From TrEMBL:
PANTHER family in UniProt: FI23927P1-RELATED, PKSB
Family: Belongs to the short-chain dehydrogenases/reductases (SDR) family.
Taxonomic lineage from the root: Eukaryota, Metazoa, Ecdysozoa, Arthropoda, Hexapoda
Gene3D superfamilies the record matches: NAD(P)-binding Rossmann-like Domain
Listed transmembrane segments: 26-48
SUPFAM superfamilies per UniProt: NAD(P)-binding Rossmann-fold domains
The keyword Transmembrane helix is annotated on this UniProt entry: yes
Any Pfam family matching the protein: adh_short
Domain of life: Eukaryota
Protein known as: Uncharacterized protein
UniProtKB keywords: Membrane, Transmembrane, Transmembrane helix
Record carries keyword Transmembrane: yes
């Protein structure tokens, strides 16, 4: 282990080429044999489990924290979790929105719901949030990393500050929130982390270059974290969930931009996506595709160059995005 800051202060020292130990081939063979046995056992267990019906998890009385819970999908997720009997910490940079969500939930469900103000791209704000939630409520059981900015722009003319903000809010925030909240989950031997990713992390599309990159970052982060948790043995009680929602009607400005796409893109309601996400969570489904047209998205990956061009110039009317005279950014 080393500290990145210390390492950057030092002069670069090239590593010496390691000498291969002569017995390494034997070691490799032994490892390969052992791994084969483990794989056979895993297949056997998987087969046995096929015949067991697994009960959905009871998450009643758990404490869920939802980032970006003031509006849009986050708000729907808060309601849906409250419906399952969770207490909810509604976190948003828009405190008015968080307060509104929390008051409505508090009135409708017999659970405890509190609003919190936090800029989740700021590490100090996250530490403060954790202290406040633990003092006023308790340790978080279910962390829903939802906060994000749908950012559409012509990459070549996009604003550098907007790009930086999108990366911080969409990707950095999820990594920091997870890092800061996971320790308590491991201590308490229970944790569910749900990461809201995007269909655009699976299907790359024009005008969403930065956005796709931020969501692919989230996807890669959670997948790598799964490996880490598995190897450390924490996978028994920490479960990670990736949600890939299709486009939704949320913020007005975003809907206006999507309208420019001639209603070609499907648009789901945030309630529908929240429903898929929470149903997936209690069913223990690690990858949740909240869309009706997944086969079309997969097929789109195999389109030829000219077919892609045809779609983005005729159907999607990308001139709207590339002309530069319509709002070419949406934050
Ligand atoms: C779910 O868990 C809660 C609290 O742990 C308990 O009160 C409730 O009875 C459980 N519900 C079911 C259907 O098992």
């Amino acid at each position: 282990m080393y500290n990145i800051n210390e390492l950057m202060e030092r002069d670069y020292r090239p590593a010496v080429n390691p000498q291969k130990n002569s017995s390494y081939k034997l070691t490799l063979l032994v490892v390969a044999l052992k791994v084969s046995v483990v794989i056979i056992c895993d297949i056997f267990h998987w087969f046995i489990n096929l015949f067991k019906s697994s009960e959905p998890e009871n998450i009643s009385k758990k404490l869920a924290l939802v980032t970006g819970g003031g509006n849009g999908l986050g708000r729907s997720l808060c309601f849906r979790l409250a419906q399952e009997g969770c207490d909810v910490a509604v976190v948003d940079i828009d405190y008015k929105g968080a307060f509104q969500t929390a008051s409505e939930i508090q009135e409708k469900y017999k659970i405890i719901c509190k609003p919190y103000h936090c800029d989740v791209s700021d590490k100090n704000a996250i530490y403060k949030l954790k202290n406040d939630v633990e003092r006023e409520m308790r340790g978080v059981d279910i962390l829903v990393n939802n906060a994000g900015l749908l950012y559409t722009a012509n990459f070549l003319t996009s604003n550098v500050e907007d790009i930086e903000r999108a990366v911080k809010v969409n990707t950095l925030s999820q990594i920091l929130m997870t890092r800061i909240f996971i320790s308590g989950m491991i201590e308490r031997k229970y944790g569910r982390i749900m990461s809201i990713c995007s269909i655009t992390s699976i299907v790359e599309s024009p005008t969403m270059v930065t956005y796709s990159a931020t969501k692919k970052g989230v996807d890669g982060f959670i997948k790598a974290l799964k490996e880490d948790i598995l190897v450390s043995g924490n996978d028994e009680f920490i479960k990670l969930f990736l949600v890939y929602p299709d486009f939704m009607h949320t913020r007005e400005e975003i809907s206006n931009v999507l309208d420019a796409v001639k209603h070609f893109l499907p648009r789901l309601s945030p309630d529908r996506v929240a429903d898929d996400a929470v149903n997936g969570l209690i069913a223990g489904k690690e990858y949740i595709y909240a869309t009706d047209i997944m086969p079309i998205y997969y097929a789109a990956k195999f389109l030829t160059k000219n077919a892609k061009k045809h779609i983005s110039t005729s159907i999607l009317d990308s001139s709207i995005f590339f002309s530069g005279n319509i709002k070419n950014k949406t934050l």
